[in-house]
């Protein structure tokens, strides 16, 4: 037996618009979707991390008296610091990284430790 469709149960017809051939109109700019990164991580933590990294770059340019591009190759891994058990270990690691700086680094190290206190490690979340 065939099912009887009534106007109330069948979906309304769809209307599609096409640009006439020969026209070169630019399509409207698509709406940006929220990036995957902000879905996986907390936006506030990402903002904190970005601000911290910008602060580190500013401090290193002052310490080394040079432009950002001329800073010696060193990587201050915030996640690595957060994994360390104590502030003494963190301070020793940062001092080890900036050992070739001729300016005093104690203020930089203590300020950095203050800034990372309470931050969360940005690890990849597990899929559920």
Question: In words, what does this structure look like?
Answer:
With 128 residues, the chain is mostly helical. 43% of the residues lie in helices and 0% in strands. It is built from five helices and no strands. The longest helix is centred in the middle third of the chain and has 22 residues, at 43-64. This is Protein phosphatase 1 regulatory subunit 14B. Pfam families: PP1_inhibitor. Keywords: Acetylation, Phosphoprotein, Protein phosphatase inhibitor. One of its GO terms (molecular function) is protein serine/threonine phosphatase inhibitor activity. Residues 1-33 are annotated as: Disordered.
Pick out its properties.
single chain; 128 residues; mainly alpha; 5 helices; elongated
Low-confidence regions: none
Query: Helicity level, as a percent range?
Result: 40-55%
Helix-strand pattern = HHHHH
**Rg of Cα set:** 27 Å
Q: Mind describing the biggest β-sheet?
A: none
Shape: elongated
Question: What separation lies between the terminal Cα atoms?
Answer: 45 Å
Instruction: Summarize model confidence as the mean pLDDT.
Output: 78
DSSP summary, beta strand count: 0
The number of helical elements comes to: 5
Instruction: Tell me what portion of residues adopts beta-strand conformation.
Output: under 5%
Class from secondary-structure proportions: mainly alpha
GO molecular function: protein serine/threonine phosphatase inhibitor activity
Protein name: Protein phosphatase 1 regulatory subunit 14B
InterPro entries: CPI-17, CPI-17_sf
Keywords: Acetylation, Phosphoprotein, Protein phosphatase inhibitor
């Amino acid at each position: 037996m065939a099912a009887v469709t009534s106007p109330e149960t069948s979906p309304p017809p769809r209307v599609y618009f096409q640009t006439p051939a020969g026209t070169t109109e630019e399509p409207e700019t698509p709406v940006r979707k929220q990036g995957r990164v902000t879905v996986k991580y907390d936006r506030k933590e990402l903002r904190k991390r970005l601000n911290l990294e910008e602060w580190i770059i500013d401090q290193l340019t002052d310490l080394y008296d040079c432009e950002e591009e001329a800073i010696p190759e060193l990587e201050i891994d915030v996640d690595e610091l957060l994994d360390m058990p104590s502030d003494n270990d963190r301070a020793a690691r940062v001092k080890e990284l900036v050992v070739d700086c001729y300016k005093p680094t104690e203020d930089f190290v203590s300020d950095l430790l203050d800034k990372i206190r309470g931050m969360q490690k940005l690890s990849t979340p597990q899929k559920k």
